[in-house]
Amino acid sequence: LLRTHVQPGRVLYVSKLNTSSVSPAFESRLGYSRQGNRMVIALHNLQEDDSDNYVCAEEVTNAPLLSASGTVVLVKEAEQACVKSCWGVYALSAMVALLFCALMCCTLHRVDVKKYFQKKKPNVVYEDMSYNSRHGTLVR
Questions:
Q1: Please, are residues 31 and 42 in contact by the beta-carbon 8 Å criterion?
Q2: Residues 41, 46, 47, 52, Cα dihedral to 10°
Q3: How far apart are CA 75 and CA 61, in angstroms?
Q4: Residues of 1-40 as b/e, b for ≥16 C-beta within 10 angstroms?
Q5: What string of pLDDT tens digits covers the 140 residues of the chain?
Q6: N or C: which end of the chain has fewer CB within 10 A?
Q7: Whole-structure pTM over 0.70, yes or no?
Q8: Where are the transmembrane segments (predicted)?
Q9: DSSP symbol at 7
């Protein structure tokens, strides 16, 4: 597997004896499997600088490598990667808020809220202490 335009070079080389060499840039991000003459190559965790034209070619002895069209890989920044998970967080937050509101409504319905907000009448005892009303009474 070769990169041909932006950063030309060898990405993966597999010999007929199944020995392989992988470019250091793709060492932990490349996987391949081989069955007979068929090979499947998978690139993982692609980054923007991995954008290039990739060509699979077979080495032919004593012959120059023939030009091939290959596959153009264009990697764009993945800024929309969390859209689905973000909506999940928003939906979960909304559900928790609604459940909390329902719990508060049920609690306030059971409790007599009016009695907590009414003005309490103070316990007042009024006694007439004027001279006329005390006349003839004994105070102990």
A1: yes
A2: 30
A3: 34
A4: bbbbeeeeeebbebeeeeeeebbeebeeebeeeeeeeeee
A5: 888 888 888 898 888 787 888 999 898 899 988 887 788 888 888 888 889 888 888 776 666 565 566 788 888 876 655 656 677 788 888 999 999 998 888 887 777 666 666 666 667 776 666 666 555 555 55
A6: C
A7: no
A8: 87-111
A9: S
Helices of type H across 53-140: 83-110, 114-117, 131-134
pLDDT of 99 = 92
CB 26 within 8 A of CB 11: yes
Distance CA 73, CA 110 (A): 64
Residue 77 backbone phi and psi in degrees, to 5:
-60, 135
